Amino acid sequence: MQKDYSSIVVSSRVRLSRCLQNVPFPSRMNAADGAKIIGKVYNAIKDADEFTVYKMSEISKNDAYILQEKHLISRDLIENRESGGACINQTETLSVMINEEDHIREQCMLAGLNLDAAYKLINKVDDQICKKLEIAYSNGLGFLTSCITNVGTGLRGSVMLFLPALTLSGKITGIIEHLKKNGMAVRGAYGEATDYLGYLYQISNERTLGKTEAEYISLITSLVTQICDLEVDARKEILLNRESEVKDIVYRAFGVLTNCYLLSCEEFMRLIGEIKMGIALNIVRMKDNYIVDKLLATCTPYNLCNLAGNITTTEEEQKYRAVYVRKVLLSNRIK
Asked: I need a surface site. Which of 22, 110, 127, 148 has the fewest CB within 10 A?
């Protein structure tokens, strides 16, 4: 019987990097060539799902940043206004970035510990791409990409984990060191050079060469399962030995988030992680146990501005975030 890690694993993502044969890398191509590639990729995948095409040259920067905050495209793609594009399906689980660092970067993102399912879905898209387009490939090395760190499978599997107990206990430091020694990368919620705000850790394979795609998926899943079991044990331990301290952290966070006048995105990320911990440890009870994840998706700067509709300054953004978060938390709490 599979264990329930729903309060620990936030999401799973599988990304595949591919480059076209005998075509200049995106950094060296012009707008006309970029547009042709967007068309070719869409035609290759259009039968795999219902995709919408987004051209960076045609959508507003605000709309592009909303897609980035949803983890559907990257900042590097946004900066390629001339020839960058993306094909995104209706459920926003499948995204194919075009002319980012590589010609094609396919990804599937699903809730929970679902790397196997994500791989199967994106592999169907990849099969169409490899069947209909000439992809750069070496029998000795595998897929050839613009960056040597992606050569081989071109696969990056990543899992977003919520690890408050391992963080508070200090055990997370040793775990991160162990993961890095075993070829894994550990980042914050928004990728490289981001802090572990809200107790969120993104774990992925650093190497793409030497194993098959299925072997990398199996390895990451195994390591993540071990970490989840350690988090479960750490939660029991922290409730047994530091219950009052943890309750104080949670209640203070709830007090600030339901009474503050201004709320920056960084402070929100930090404090909402404490509320998420409180829900996981049954210290606070909510009508919707996934309300924190919904707030995390909504309260990023561009998504929040899109929701409010008339925000023009940082102060207005922080005021609106404070009001919105207070309303959602108070209406969902079970006293």
From this structure: 22
